[in-house]
Structure prediction request, 286 residues.
Amino acid sequence: ARADSPDADEARADSPEAEEARRPIDPADVTARLADPDRWPIDWTPQTGSTHADLAAQAEAGRLRPGQVLVTEEQVAGRGRAGRQWHCPAGAGLMVSVALDLPAVPAERRGWAGAVLGLAVVAGLRSAAGVPAGLKWPNDVLIDGAKCAGILGEVAGGRLIVGSGINISLTRAELPRDDATSVALAGGRLDRAALLAAILDELGSWCDRWAVAAGEVDAAGIRPAYLRACVTVGAQIRVLLPTQRWVVGEAVDVDAGGALVVADATGRRQSFTVGDVVHVRPAPPG
Prediction:
């Protein structure tokens, strides 16, 4: 197969390197790569229902440490936005949740936490995996227009928990959707420990800037960075509302509150929060 053919991509995803990449992550290996090893205490489990649910339960019980990280080889009840189910074969993804300690960021400004993790994932994929990635509003990470990861954030027991499930070595046959991809299919490096360390370092850097700015996403540089990374902004899209009505127009901004701003053909602008929408899709041509 030609090097740029789909068959070649599948061969890379099913290579000895991909098989090696599915060996269990060693938390000590991740910690050794961190710029600040004490910041992120890392727990590992071979299988769980959901890393997010596990950290949430610890938070409700008052046992969650600041910066606690939980990574697993396999989730059997992983959750996406709006409770959607998500599953990845054992060792084929990077499934991680993190408890953020942000006392300097007011509660009403913490809605950007998922976007902050999204920026960290994009940066980590570029530096550690060598693949270009972008963000789709509100909570997807894309490589070449195909979904590679999802982002989830919630508050439990008064603690802010963010998490991501990233497709690492999945083959085309293992992906649940035609519009999904993996780091392996994109020809990237498959070292999950290096990727997790890069994401945590980047996440820590963004959280520090956010704290210094007292939660102001523009002053922290978070919103400008998000707008640069967001492939939704500037695109013609259609937004599906819970009433099953589609709104079609150009995504022109993500405002300081995190809402997507869409301009219709007349120039009239509407803003949509995450809770307002079911799906965001590319607008049909023509």
Observations:
- The mean pLDDT is 92.
- Helices lie at 6-13, 16-21, 27-33, 51-60, 113-129, 192-212, 222-229.
